[in-house]
Amino acid sequence: MGMEQLAGRIMLLGGAKRAFLAFLAGALGALALPPVGFFAVLFISFPILVWLLDGASGSPDRAHSFGLRSAFVTGWLFGFGYFTAGLWWLGNALLLEAEEFAWALPLAVLGLPAVLALFYGAATMLARLVWSDGMGRIAALAAGFGLAEWLRSFLATGFPWNAIGYAAMPIPLMMQSAAPLGLFGVSTLAVFVFSAPALLGTRKGLGPGLLLAGLLFAAHLGYGAYVVQQPLPEGGKTVTVRLVQPVIDQVRKLENADRIDIFNQHLELSAQPVEPGNRQPEIIVWPETSIPFILTEHPDALARIADVLKDGQVLVTGAVRAEDLGAGQAPRYYNSVYVIDDKGQILSASDKVHLTPFGEYLPFEQLLRSMGFDNLISLPGGFSPASERMLLSLPSGVGLYPLICYEIIFPDEIDIPAGKAGAIVNLTNDAWFGATPGPYQHFLQARVRAVETGLPLIRSANNGISAIVDRRGRIISGMELDVRGAADATFGVVYASSWDNTDRSLNFWLVMLVVASAALISRMGFIFRTN
I want to staple 476 with a disulfide (CB 3.0 to 4.6 A). Which of 104, 456, 468, 520 is the partner? Predict the structure, then answer.
């Protein structure tokens, strides 16, 4: 069967067959995500989506209400397949306390994908507004998805997990475009490139469309090859960091029964001798909420940390911080990161700004509690968000930009003053998700932030994936999932990014302007041809 015949058959599908194929195309696209990372599968998924939209909209002169509804449903089904196949592992967090939360499993595994799919439904509906033929409809789809991914990053607290752009950045060679374009610029152009084979099914705009897509993909690879071959900047401080990955079972952490043993395990891994000939670590990094009690209420714990740290060493650790509000009021709790020196003094601290809904706080709390909902993490009132993120200052003069857990997936919320931070430090606990795709997807997104910001990434996870990543997204040292231990690495902390958030935002909107203009021009040309 030729491509034109295949496209024709897909366009003419109706009813359950059309719905199933839209869902299947999206689910198939999830194979482009970690840990599989087979990005080429989207050269199948997106052409199918284009052909389904061709059939859904029919003639552009048909009643808009029918075309818009049909396009929305097609995009929603595509998104529902993509997010269900890409996020099913979220249910693992609920099964850790199955007696209390198993009832909510369908909401996590199907409910969240259904909500996220609304953005893709909106993307295809917007594309339908300027749908034409040939390359114009590919540009319209790219513009619709680019806008949808951007909106998904902040609406309803935001959740830009598994944006399409990540599929185009599975390895450092293919991550470098994120520095000038940002995640959303890469996502927009990726949809255009992945959709281009659809032109083989209709032949209209085939030559220019495939040529442009080929040039964009070649530029993506060529720019990446150029950047990764450039030597890293020199002249700044060199630091040696030890990552501690204790692999504490999440059920043990939740039960909170053997807190001393958990604390001791972190101390033991921190005190391991270095390999012969290697530098002694200056910074030791523990994961998110690794200290299983309120540290300021246990001066003996600070003394034990001081005993383990060698002269000049500091510990960067995740902990829960309690703020006393006075008599008769419950304390306020923060998910925090501390810097502790070799004398047991807390030198610096920062609190988490962007909390995880349903994990660290309950949105619409009164309503949802009346319906039986609760936080996964049991604290009176949940965690409180910080009003601003504080830079961590080390005695050596190095500044660290702290991001706790999934804060690192929000590129537009990362605002690092030029020259003030030598690295990003990301503390997380992906043990919630077990041996599923979740930790691998989280790690890829963290690596892309290193490329965007031009800063090394220091990432410590309770269980996978802990790593030190250079500013090109390359892993210097680390530990895979389920590997208990400590890993050391020495690297430079020169801030050397040529791009900032303002540049990336401007370039994203320039890309959007180009693809939207191409779609509009094509649409106007179509109208003139058919009148």
Answer: 468
Q: Residue 132 and residue 138: Cα distance in Å, rounded?
A: 9
First to last CA, the chain: 34
Tokens of residue 155, six digits: 């609406």
Contact status, residue 43 vs residue 25, Cβ threshold 8 Å: no
Contact 166, 444 (CB under 8 A): yes
Residues carrying an active site annotation: 288, 352, 405
Q: How many other CB atoms are found less than 10 A from the CB of residue 122?
A: 21
Tokens representing 56? Answer: 């859904």
* Local structure of residue 121 (DSSP, 8 states): H
Nearest one of 23, 102, 95 to 438, comparing CA atoms:
95
Per residue in 197-216, is it b (16+ CB within 10 Å) or e — as a string? Answer: bbbbbbeebbeebeebbeeb
Cβ pair 312, 282 in contact under 8 A: yes
How many CA within 13 A on the CB side of residue 513? 6
Which helix H or strand E contains 267, and what residues bound it?
Answer: helix 259-270
Q: What is the pLDDT of residues 401-446, one digit of tens each?
A: 999 999 999 999 998 887 789 999 999 999 889 899 999 999 999 9
- What 3-state DSSP class applies to 392? strand
Closest C-alpha to 508, from 443, 424, 452 = 452
Copy the structure tokens of residue 59. Answer: 């003639």
Nearest Cα to 457, choosing from 439, 442, 476? Answer: 476
Question: Which of 162-171, 364-373, 455-464, 491-500 reaches the highest mean pLDDT?
Answer: 162-171
Q: Quick one: which H or E segment has residue 103?
A: none
pLDDT of residue 367: 57
Q: Is 425 left (phi over 0), alpha (psi -120 to 50) or beta?
A: beta
**3-class SS of residue 426:** strand
Q: Angle, to 10 degrees, between the axis of helix 42-57 and the axis of helix 112-129?
A: 60
User: Measured between alpha carbons, how far is residue 177 from residues 134, 190, 503, 508 in Å?
Assistant: 27, 11, 13, 12
Q: How far does CA 79 lie from the centroid of its chain?
A: 17
Alpha-carbon gap, residue 351 to 358, rounded angstroms:
18
Taking Cα atoms as reference points, which of 173, 145, 34 lies closest to residue 79?
145
